[in-house]
Amino acid sequence: xxxxxxxxxxxxxxxxxxxxxxxxxxxxxxxxxxxxxxxxxxxxxxxxxxxxxxxxxxxxxxxxxxxxxxxxxxxxxxxxxxxxxxxxxxxxxxxxxxxxxxxxxxxxxxxxxxxxxxxxxxxxxxxxxxxxxxxxxxxxxxxxxxxxxxxxxxxxxxxxxxxxxxxxxxxxxxxxxxxxxxxxxxxxxxxxxxxxxxxxxxxxxxxxxxxxxxxxxxxxxxxxxxxxxxxxxxxxxxxxxxxxxxxxxxxxxxxxxxxxxxxxxxxxxxxxxxxxxxxxxxxxxxxxxxxxxxxxx
Length: 297
What we know:
The chain is of the alpha/beta class. The chain has 15 helices and nine strands. The protein has a single domain (25-287), classed as Phosphoenolpyruvate-binding domains (TIM Barrel, Alpha-Beta Barrel), CATH 3.20.20. A nine-stranded parallel sheet has the order 7-6-5-4-3-2-1-9-8. The longest helix is centred in the last third of the chain and has 16 residues, at 254-269. The radius of gyration is 19 Å and the shape is globular.
């Protein structure tokens, strides 16, 4: 008897199933930390963070995120060499600037400094992504940060570009572009389901937003509701949010914090689809009460 193919009732397209999530889901969840502090990079590497590196993105960012608690770093290419020298396990990571006349120079420079994974932010077309892939030329893994409405609309064409390894969905800039209250509203929306489905259909790895500590009670929504969205969406990676390091308890241990996060992700991966869908509804309810601006990544 032939198996039934699920059809999305909105688009009419076949639904790509979420990848099978194993009991060790949290153990293989890709965590990315942005830092130019070699001492923190060493601790993160020891704790099992998967990607550690710098953020060079500055072009246009201050203007589009004016007045927000933005991550506008002062990292330099020299910082990368210092951070990469501390890594025994993690891959050296760089978020470069959006595509511009200096991209070829910037890519060559960060690769020479030790970069192994490069992220292209704030693109709008497949042509931009294709150009970036060409510049990298197979010398590093490529992650694209989908964070514009134009890119969201063109997601199917964009994820079809050969040479990509991963798509990260940038919740904060999408929130700004759509003009909604918070990134939690984006995370709990059907839009994220559709974008995640397209990424999975292209057989690319998917990362979404950022993660906080499991014990952080200072955030506007419980971190646990956010953790549940990763297995629901089939996402297998995220930033380590800046809040991860804020207001830490006196006995706080980085290794334990990462282990606790991975364990909780594994536990959520074993939850039923019905339970995960319930957490989406709870997150949407919490998001409707968030009236101030907060940055997850």
